[in-house]
Amino acid sequence: MPGRLWKVLDRIRLVRARINTYYHRALGARVGAKCLFGNGVRIERPWNVSCGERCVLEPNVWLDLATDQATVSLGKRVFMGRGAHLLVTDGITIGDHCLIGDGVVMSDHKHNHTPDELIETQGCNSAKIQIGSDVLICVRAVILQGVSIGDGAIVGPGAIVTQDVAPYSIVGTPPARVLGNRQTLPK
Fold first, then answer.
1. Annotated catalytic, 113?
2. pTM for this one?
3. How many angstroms separate the CA atoms of 136 and 165, rounded?
4. Rounded to whole angstroms, how far apart are CA atoms 140 and 160?
5. Catalytic: which of 85, 97, 109, 113?
């Protein structure tokens, strides 16, 4: 009995994902054939988003296009894990056959912060993010403005990518290291 119930629940999940995909297509997103958008997928300004065929956006993915000029382009067979968040003011392009892990954040802009005026009034600098084909970006990695990641590259879990990554490179952050001791900090 549990096996049958699981199959029924899985079928319901699939139907809901198809309905969610059609909903975003109706709002203006250019969505290829057989794409699936999970529960809670949010796309701001969907008319500036294009997805190739068979893209999968897991539940709670957020494509946060902050301006009317912002664009997101996903190639064929792109998988984005749960809770991935793309903050876009300019553009993010992801090639074919890419795997984007859970909780990955990509931001193509940063706030200006000169000390002589309020940060909120200074605006942002932005530069497009380019990700090649056949790229793996592991869980909770952060990709920042202007970065280009070459074909076949792997970005390790928790990595913060601030510079270009050559094709077929493997990048990541070093293991945790001691930064200090709470007992020796000034009180």
1. yes
2. 0.88
3. 12
4. 9
5. 113
